[in-house]
Specification:
Elements lengths: L1 H13 L7 H13 L3 H5 L7 H15 L9 H16 L1 H8 L1
Length: 99
């Protein structure tokens, strides 16, 4: 009896909840995994232009690329760098990240 009474209430609550897009969920997962500020990772200011982001990525990628980096987690570092750069290059994702 208790389950039947709670079911309509549960559905009422679910219909109000805002759903996240897959892109937003991926970004959230990345932020949790990296656990660092993306701007700090690239050594750029928060108002960096697209060309500054590309230049910073090229510079960082030279030292973090697994072919040049002997660290055991070099592949993870490089993947995180690529993903963070992709977010900062996309204006919509960058805005969501900044918020």
């Amino acid at each position: 009896m208790c389950t039947k009474m709670m079911l309509p209430l549960f559905y009422g609550v679910v219909s109000v909840v805002h759903a996240w897009t897959q892109e937003q969920l991926d970004m959230y997962d990345l932020v949790e995994e990296v656990n660092a500020n993306f701007y700090d990772m690239l050594d750029i200011p928060m108002d960096a232009s697209a060309s500054q982001i590309r230049k910073a990525f090229r510079t960082k990628s030279l030292s973090l690329h697994p072919d040049r980096n002997d660290a055991p987690d070099a592949e993870v570092q490089f993947r995180n760098l690529v993903a963070a750069t992709d977010i900062l290059k996309n204006q919509d994702l960058r805005q969501q990240y900044d918020d």
